[in-house]
Amino acid sequence: MADSPVTRWPLVYERLHAHFGAQDWWPAQSPFEVMVGAILTQNTAWRNVELAIAALRAADALGVRAILGMDEADLAQLIRPAGYFRVKARRLRALCAFLAAQGVAEDPGQLGRGQDPVALRRDLLAVHGVGEETADAILLYALDAAVPVVDAYTRRIGKRLGLLPEKASYGEIQSAIAAEIPADLAVLNELHALLVQLGKEHCRPRPRCELCPLLSLCPHAYA
Prior knowledge:
By secondary structure, the protein is mostly helical. The protein folds into 2 domains: 9-24 and 149-217, Endonuclease Iii, domain 2, CATH 1.10.1670; 31-142, Endonuclease III, domain 1 (Orthogonal Bundle). The chain has helices at 9-20, 31-40, 46-58, 64-68, 72-78, 85-101, 117-125, 132-142, 152-160, 170-180, 185-201. This is Endonuclease.
């Protein structure tokens, strides 16, 4: 049974943080590696992304100039473990071309310094292969912009908790979270990572409700 108090995103954050602890996400050695990971993680598990990034690093190809100077077919083979490797090779090269055009090829972490995050988000969305989730992951994890990231776990968990309408758009979900969670970089970072962890361990398509830290809040439990 759900608790009588109305569930809100801050309560979800508090419960998950108390249960799982700090997630220290996104694992990467540089802002550019985060950007690469944001492309590679599309439609695949993170362990596959790690394999692809390791291959890029081993080939000394984890850089904007290196990727742009590489034959696209060779790049695709390096990132093959991430799946959809030909598509993702084109997307990586498009992102790198954008970074080079912005004058930050040598230090991608400087992208958008001093720029309005809304305008930077619009510019990122214009890059081939960069959708809303990818753009926001880059903004939050690589560029320290306090924006909520919405993914399949966020949607599933939010709907089951009654926090989101069934057909909420990406923007509607993002606005709902932003209305309740302050524009705090650390909190938004942790919230997204904690929702991913909950989605992997408990709130699956076929949920494992028994030990879920949000069990008492969830009207969907055992449904």
